[in-house]
Structure formats: C-alpha cells, structure tokens
Amino acid sequence: QTLPCLACFVMLRDRVCGVALVVVALSCFVTGGVAAPVSDSSADVFRFATVLASDMVLQAAPQQAMVWGFCNASDTVFVVFNGHTFKATVGPDQATGALTTWRVLLPATAASFDKYKITASTGSATATISDVMFGDVWVCSGQSNMAYPIAHDPDCWNASNVNCTTRDAQCSYGCVNHSRQETDAMENYDDGMRLFIVNGQSSKTPMADMRGAFSWQVPSAMSSKFSATCWFYGRDTYDQLKRAGKARPLGLIAAHVGGTPDEHWSSQDALNKCKGPNPWNFPSNFTDSVLWNGFIVPLLRTSLTGAVWYQGERNSRVDGRTYNCSFPAMIQDWRAKFHKYTDGAASAEFPFGWVQLNSNAGVEGNYDNPTLTPGFGQYGEWAAGFPSIRLAQTNTLSLPSTFEAIVLDTPVASGSVHSPYKQPVGQRLARGGLSVAYGMHDVAAVAPVAVSAAIQGTSVVVQLGGVGPGGLTVHQGAQGIEVLGGDNVWHSVPVAKGTGSAITASPVPPSPKAVRYLWYSSPCTLQTYQCPVYARVDPLGSLSGEQQNFLPLGPFVLPLEG
Fold first, then answer.
1. Is 298 helix (H, G, I), strand (E, B) or coil?
2. How many other CB atoms are found less than 10 A from the CB of residue 196?
3. What is the reported pTM?
4. pLDDT tens, 113-127?
5. Alpha-carbon gap, residue 456 to 462, rounded angstroms
C-alpha cells in the first residue's frame, strides 16, 4: 500500500544558520498497519475516530478515558465496556462543528495489562475495538528532530564513521547510534507499549479527524520508522516505572512534521496572545495554525498523561522574544483545549516537556570576543539564533508541570542539526517526566542550573543549584564562559575550577557587567560530551548511549553582582 503523508517527510538538512535545506517528500511503502485515509466528507459513516483502534492504550485512572467517533445527528449511540452500557453524548465535532460526533467518558479504569473490548452501536450499526489496555498516553510532537526515526535502515550505523568522513545517514538524517541493537530490542516492550503515528495534513481549517495513520502497533511491528526521541523517552519511562514497582502500559502518539515553526502547531487563540506593537510580536492580521488544524485538533478528545516536544530550530531566524511568547502560549492553549474537549478528563495543567535545542553548524568564530549586539535585550540575549531560542525554552519552565532536557553536548561531527545521539535525549527527558508526571523526584534531583553570579577579585564565581551529592566535573581551562566588559565586548574567560556547587573563571575584563555561558549554536565543539561543566548523577537507562553518570550545565546569561 502506498500512502503519501506529511509524517514521512525526510529532513536531510535544515536551513538553519546557513545550512542548506533539502526536504524530500516520500510516499510511505508499508505492508499493513496503516489505517485507510479518511476525510471529513466521509465522516458521517458510523465509526470510531481514527486514533481509537484495536491494540491501543487508553488513559488509565485517575483520569477517565474518552472514546468517541462519528455518527449522524439523529443517531442514539450506546457504548458497552466491561459489562456496562453507557449512553453517548451526540453533538457537533470539536473542529468546526460541521460534523456530528458521539463521545463517552468511561469509568476511571486502573492501569493494567489486561485486554478489553469496547463496542459502540446505534442499533443499526456497530463498531468494535479490542485488545485495549489502560495505561498512560503521551503525545510526542515537533519538527524534524522529533520526526527523526530510529533508522530508515536498521543496519545503517557505522561505528567507524563517527567523525563523519562520509556524510551517510548517521551524519545527516535517519540513523541513531547503534541502530540495529536498538531496533532488535524493541520486541522486549511488545507486552506493554503501543505506538501510533498521526498521518495528518496541513489545513487552513480545523479537521475533526486525521487523514489516516500508522495505527496502533506493538514496538517490534512499528519498528525503526518510529520517532527516536519519542521511543527512547517512552522506553526509559516505562523501564523506570517497572523498576519502581509502578509498571503500566504506555501508549505513544507521534505527530510531527520537519521544518515547521511553532506557529503551525498553535491555535489562533494562542497566536492572538502574541500580537502587539513590538517588532517581535505577530501583526494584528497574523494567522497560521495549519498543523494544529490537521494534526492536533483530531487528537483533542484524547485523554492523556502529557506531551513531549522537540522543536524550535525553524523559529531561530528571528528575534527570540517571538518564541519567548509563542511557545508558552502554545503550551497553555494545548492544555486548555485538551481539557475542554475531553470534558475535563485531561488535566488543565498536564505535564509538558521539551528538548532544548541541540548544537548545529560549525564552531568557527566561537569565543572570539564578539561585540554586544544592541537592540536585542540588555545583553543582546534575544538576537536571532539558537541561543535565544534556548533561553526562551528555559524561561518557559516558569509554567507549572513542565520539564526540559539539555542536550547541546550531543552534536554530530558533520555539524548537522540532526544528531544520531537520540538516546541521551530520551533519557534526559525521561528524568523530567518521571519527576513531574509520576512523582519520582529522585531521578531528577540532579539538574544543574545557574542561580547567581558575582565578581570576587579578578574572578567571576557562578553559584549553581541542583548539583547533588556527586558534585561537579569541570574541565579546567575550557572555553564556555564569557564576561561582558565595560567596552561592551564579550570576553572569553577560561574556566578555572569547580568547588562544591560553584564554578570560577578568571581573569575578568575591566568593569564587568554580565556573564554568559555556552552562547553559540555549537558551543562545545562537534564531539559528544565536551561541555565544560557537568554534574555527576546515577545513570538512567540500560541500552546503548545511556550509561552516563553526568548531566550538563545548560546555557545562561546573568548580571554580575559586586
């Protein structure tokens, strides 16, 4: 079967910071597992919505799971579940209201590996889904780094080419570290994990249902075409819950398109929050929402645990204050809309995590004492580029129940925006998700962050939080810290030492005003794990690329005290 789909965009290279963009739209040649495309014009046929299918995971207690579908306005619909019958609410769809849907909130059902059958009927028509488990549902969304598959070819990884002397898949797009090992291990999760890929479409109007999908499958059947970030996040979360005696099924829904800004994924309500008179605001007549309409609106009746996000590269070409508004506005709006259209079943503050942007492009010109860029904040922090997007992402942690993975120390030697080292991405995201969504705060107790900075003699001392009992690993003499002097130049100041929960760099320039750290697209070379400062931590994860006992200190810019 051949299925043209946006979900199958292969992002060979993004045009970010001067790197050429090559987008190849592919048809997906697959055997089985793909739901037939649907359109709103055919949605009057009585059925379940596309996201609801046999072998799926529905959201477990304490939430109620919503099941829903399409019918005629005159239909009376009943749903049979676990020996009980429930009358459905029949009314306008959640998109434009032009179609009629039925929906039922099932009783809160404990997470388990038991299999259930759910039947909906009008009396004259019946639809059934079977082998349904109750557990936790996570939505994974974003652009090409979320779309990046485990492997287009499971045998693609070439350990002899980690320096990218040949620009093969692992050095451009679509081949994770140790791809064969990771693909073969997916079958170990067939008992308790289920995967789903949205085949949405760009649409100027909200769509009640998606055009089709790679429908719910066990991991070994979905195999290596699934999102690597989503898979490693879900897998590590699943493993840690099991180890903690909290085993439960996990359902992962992947909805992603390469090369897309967050405006595509935001409703008009969210976009309206960022209109205004400033140069970085959207103009009063601004509209977009084309992937919100085609990918997310069809999911809005899904009860879920939370969402994880990997995006921002496409927004890095303009003043970072745009994203500093649009990204948190999008999160708040997603939460409000899922809460509304699940009749309150989805939390109005469901956990939302994201990956801070990885490294991208070359390292030429880094730490060459650049002059302050005027007009982009007090310290030039909002100038277009990856650093200002990272700042906006970190600022968004001010929203409740959010978490962030710092990964800029996992670049690929080619300088591509698409790194094959997605295992640390999933692992670091899982630490945050386990803490925020499951109360397992011990796995996220170590999360180094800059708190304050002061001048002491001829040195700058940065106080850190979230260091933990393992302390710091500091590469003395490394570049990474810059101090803004009275001459409005960012002077590179080598790291001198790390003691306890503080790092020191010296000597500082005359009349120092501010300090910043890792303020470049690729600030730590193009080799993995080469940033100057790490906090030591117990490893999380068990497969390739994850036996790491360190977490990096992320970028920051701070005024200097004293």
1. helix
2. 27
3. 0.92
4. 999 999 999 989 999
5. 10
